[in-house]
Amino acid sequence: MGKRIAGKGGEMKKKYKYILAGVVVAVFVVAAAVGILKPIAVELETVANGSLETELTVQGTLTPIHSTLLSAGFQGAVREMPHQAGTALKQGEMILRMGYESQAELELSREQYRQQLTSAKQTYENLFGDHGSAPAALAAAQSDYELARKNYENGRALAAAGSISQIELDVLANQYSKAEQAFNQASETNSEGNRKYYEELIASYEKQLETLEQVANPGEILMPYDGVIWELYPAQGQYVTANEPVAKIYQPGDMKIQASLLTEDAVRLTQGQTVFVRYADGTVAEAKVEFVSAVAGQTLSTIGMEENRCQVEFKPEKVPELAGAGHQVDVTCTLVAAENVLSVPSSAIVPVTGGSAVYVKKGGKARLVQVETGKKSGGRVEITGGLLEHDVIVADPYEDHVKDGSRITGM
Questions:
Q1: Which parts pass through the membrane (predicted)?
Q2: What is the pLDDT of residues 30-79, one digit of tens each?
Q3: How far apart are CA 66 and CA 254, in angstroms?
Q4: pLDDT score of 364 more than 60
Q5: Pairing of strands 94-98, 220-222
Q6: pLDDT tens digits, residue range 246-292?
Q7: Could you say which of 3.30.1050.10, 1.10.599.10, 2.40.420.20, 3.40.980.10 is the CATH number of the domain covering 40-52+340-410?
Q8: Is 332 left (phi over 0), alpha (psi -120 to 50) or beta?
């Protein structure tokens, strides 16, 4: 009897073990199924038309548009220099005092200022007088610019149709660029700023000549207008010769910002484009692109690599009161590589045989779709074929370990 009971107990244990093993297997099967069926949480992006652009911040230097170079009217030693560069002075205040040598040198200095005054007046009359050349030169340059622009636009259409070669289009582009630079130069020459520059130059010569003619000892070099000392060249006690520059001054109200940009960045700027400037005191204000040089030069980067750079000038809308010549500022520009295009993050592009692809969300799953790519800028890639606006793509399939057919859901 005892043996039969023991046998039945063993069979029961085996039965329970089989049941338990079946339960464990079922749990693993369910867990695996859940893991397979559970969608991967990924970052999704809806494809839309827009500009392919990037933001660039460069360092620029605040520079006066117009400055005046003051020269010694005679030779002698600098006896007194009460101010230093950066000092704001009123008209008539002394910049420095020099020793006086002879009456003959005084008269020579007067004659030299008379000649400089006459030359400045003649230049002003030739440009802005009743028969001045500046307005006519501007009109001619504008006409050439409009013609070159029209020819280039027509050339682009012809090139797109295959009627002219790329070389012929490049010739038209070069003519357009030269005409634009000539127009900008003529505009600057005929500008109110240039007119004001010559008026101030004439006034400066007249004031200095008046000073020389009214005093017996012309040892003091005075401020011809309210302004700021930009640079002082001699040291106190130093001997200077007649007509040697001793100081540079400027009026603080009229400034520009100069910056050196890589050529590939500079060519994306357009005249009149708005940029943002951060000054040393933290003030942020707008500025306009005023000039992009057509000439570039080779420079060495901070790591010793050769770079091709060109000068760009910006016209600030407003300059803080304490900002002066030589102050460093940060200029932030938006560079547009292409407008009204479809684009995706660079991280969305997957290399495939024959080109590139992206994962598109279709029916809750990621489907690999081959695409054609174009320009790249700011961490994004232009899509020229393979996608439509409003398609939803996986922004970073590598990060999310997405494969073709993976079930996905947005984060």
A1: 18-37
A2: 544 444 567 899 999 999 988 888 888 999 999 998 889 998 877 778 88
A3: 7
A4: yes
A5: antiparallel
A6: 999 998 878 999 999 999 899 889 889 999 999 999 999 999 999 99
A7: 2.40.420.20
A8: beta
Identify the residue with better confidence: 272 or 243: 272
CA angle 84, 327, 263 (to 5 degrees): 140
By the 8 A CB rule, do 105 and 242 touch? yes
Distance CA 328, CA 44 (A): 41
Domain borders along the chain are 40-52+340-410, 56-63+253-337, 67-99+217-250, 104-216
pLDDT of residue 34: 45
- Find the length of the chain: 411
CATH of 67-99+217-250, one of 2.40.50.100, 3.90.230.10, 1.10.260.40, 2.30.30.230: 2.40.50.100
Q: How many CA atoms lie within 13 A of 300 on its CB side?
A: 3
1 token code pair = 């009897």
CA distance linking residue 83 with residue 81, whole number of Å: 6
Range 56-63+253-337 has CATH code 2.120.10.30: no
Domain pair 56-63+253-337 / 67-99+217-250, same fold: no
pLDDT at position 47: 93
Long-range contacts from 270-274, C-beta under 8 angstroms, 24+ separation: 271/184, 273/333, 273/334
SS (H, E, C) 270-339: CCCCEEEEECCCCCEEEEEEEEEEEEEEEEECCCCCEEEEEEEEEEECCCCCCCCCCCEEEEEEEEEEEE
Give 394's pLDDT tier (boundaries 50, 70, 90).
very high
Predicted confidence (pLDDT) at residue 234 exceeds the cutoff of 80: yes
